[in-house]
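Teaching assistant's notes for section 4

Start the section by putting this record on the projector. Ask students to predict, before seeing the second block, whether DNA-binding transcriptional MocR family regulator will look compact or extended. Collect guesses on the board.
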Amino acid sequence: MSLPEPVRRDTRLDNYVDRYAARAHGMTASAIRALFAVANRPEVVSLAGGMPNIADLPLDAVGSVVHDLVVDNGRVAMQYGSGQGEPMLREQICDIMRLEGVVAHPDDITVTVGSQQGLDLVTRIFCDPGDVVLCEAPSYVGALGVFSSYQCDVVHVAMDEEGLDPQALTEAIGAVRNAGKRVKFLYTIPNFHNPAGVTQSLERRQQVLAVAKAADLLVIEDNPYGLLGFDGEPIPAIRSLDADTVVYLGSFSKTFAPGFRIGWVLAPHAVREKLVLAQESATLCPPVFSQFAISAYLAKHDWRSQIKIFKEMYRDRRDAMLAGLSDHMPAGTSWTVPEGGFFVWVTLPPGLDSQSMLPRAVTARVAYVPGTAFYADGFGSRHMRLSYCFPTPERIIEGTRRLGEVLEYEMSVNETFGTAIHQGSFKPYEAPGANQT
Ligand SMILES: Cc1ncc(COP(=O)(O)O)c(C=O)c1O
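Reveal the predicted structure now:
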């Protein structure tokens, strides 16, 4: 039988528009996605993407691990597995978390398809439409997407250079509850924040936890970057301070490789039971082959030294980014100084708008992510996220030089013609109707 060649039917007309579930309405493609196709061209220095840089991964060692796995244990590794995740890997995960002071039993771990799925499962089991989730201002764009797809109301809480502000957290909880809304949890990224680049001190973690406990609030601690600190020992995880109030999300994406898509959730036992049921209905089981491969890699390879290699490579790139910013940013620009991870958060001089400026930046062959991507409420236009994880140090410096020229140009245009931009700064939560009285 000869079938016709498939034709790509690229139309914006959607005949199903009135049939989608309400939760699908929050799923919209970002307005900047189209620009990123251009931003990925080789002549553009992309300081936009947050992809881990796995150039230094020892492919021969990983290759031999995978080869041995297929030959010696392929029929198990390629079969369905446990919905909770493979016991051997869960034990190894417990050893890894000890590096950040977390004492956990393997039975309290659910393996997930990256920590992104951990976020999805946690939100799925806790949140009804209209429930409030508290997040830092700004917060991880992938988490905001999950919260929106479960129709949660995101309320942002201010940060300073030490991360989430406990006083602002207290006020946000009070304001939301006074408005008669239910807060389900606080979502926080304590280490090398994506996108803000800041880290909570131990004291700050204790304060945040104390506020959460006093308010009987669950804390979701998302920690994919914790072992990628450039100096000193890791700061103890919030989960190391309290096993009952904290649900901890971990990932192998940044310390090994994201393509295996393996992360985990460590949760109080009753929550863990619900997570496994949710995992079974979502995937039957997390990818068994990936779990066996990571488990064998951890057992046979010196993964601690590999993380050290990653850290040194990221530290060189961070240094290049900071040097480039100091040399090329116009007066009035400021930025955070990350002590690990991938990201710097830039605050632009007044009157500049990172979103409207992006097409001009891409024309000048440099790309970034506008700050608005990291807020659920449209704020953030005076900020941008710069990633230093992927380009070489030389390219990073060249990228900041190009960006500096774009900012200078924008400022001179504003000086000549004035600016029509009305930039609100981040405002704490106001109950609906509160400003009408
Ligand atoms: C803060 C944060 N959480 C979660 C994720 C998801 O990571 P993965 O699903 O690859 O584990 C990312 C990825 O960039 C992230 O930055």
